[in-house]
Design a protein that fits this description.
The chain is 78% helix and 0% strand. The chain contains eleven helices and no strands. It is globular.
């Protein structure tokens, strides 16, 4: 058997569970209820004040969540990758352990804790839950880049008289940007499209873009729901494309 034959199960899996669902989303997005081709579902989004408002709120929450995750995640990743500060693999496992629990269960438990201590559910609790759920996705891409970084660059900068602060800002931070970019993608886009976290941690007071898609699907408005999902896919694709170009530019400079 040729080695290429081993890829057949993966190709079949991708075709059934990735390509086919995406094709169905596109098919429903450009059809009306009678199955005829139309652009009305796409154009409706730009005239739907509810959907546009929800999308704006989703972007706001996603930006805030991503910034908080960067501020908390980068120092944590730097400490984990620093062998002088972190000499035990147990510390790394501690950051992984919350991810062993189902995200929905973690969200429900977080909401119950807020209810027990009397904190009203709102945007603050939503951001707390977002950071709690997505912080590991920011830490580990940065940690992987920092852990694999060639230490000779840092030693060379120190030999040339650079202070530890300059070494960090001029060497460590620029070289770790691919990890930061990956972390931003892994935090920002899921935040925009999620709905369960906002539903349980705000009692549906704050709706995100994923909630609008869910409501349309649950109301049997498949075509408009698929159009919203398709718009989200386009945004994800554009973001990924620009991040890929930025990564190539950074590698070229390095």
């Amino acid at each position: 058997m040729k080695r290429s034959h081993w890829s057949i199960p993966y190709v079949v899996f991708m075709a059934i569970f990735v390509v086919l669902p995406l094709l169905l989303v596109m098919l429903y997005a450009f059809q009306d209820e009678s199955g005829r081709f139309t652009l009305a579902n796409i154009t409706r989004f730009f005239s739907d004040s509810d959907a546009l408002g929800t999308f704006a709120v989703s972007l706001e929450v996603a930006i805030e969540n991503t910034l908080i995750c960067i501020l908390l995640g980068y120092p944590a990743a730097w400490i984990l990758a620093n062998k002088e500060l972190n000499r035990s693999a147990v510390t790394i496992i501690l950051f992984i352990m919350p991810m062993w629990i189902n995200a929905l269960m973690r969200t429900l438990a977080t909401a119950e804790i807020f209810n027990m201590i009397g904190i009203p559910l709102g945007k603050g609790t939503l951001l707390f839950g977002m950071v709690y759920d997505y912080l590991p996705f920011m830490i580990y891409p940065i940690y992987n880049v920092l852990a694999k970084m060639d230490r000779s660059y840092l030693e060379a900068a120190q030999d040339l008289g650079a202070t530890p602060w300059k070494v960090f800002w001029k060497i460590t931070v620029p070289l770790s940007m691919p990890g930061v970019t990956s972390g931003i993608l892994m935090v920002f886009m899921p935040t925009v499209s999620t709905f369960a976290i906002s539903e349980f941690l705000t009692n549906n007071k704050i709706k995100l873009f994923g909630t609008i898609i869910q409501e349309n699907i649950n109301s049997s408005m498949w075509n408009y729901g698929a159009a919203l999902a398709f718009i989200m896919l386009i945004i994800i694709g554009i973001t990924t494309m620009f991040s890929g170009e930025r990564k190539e530019a950074e590698e070229a400079l390095i």
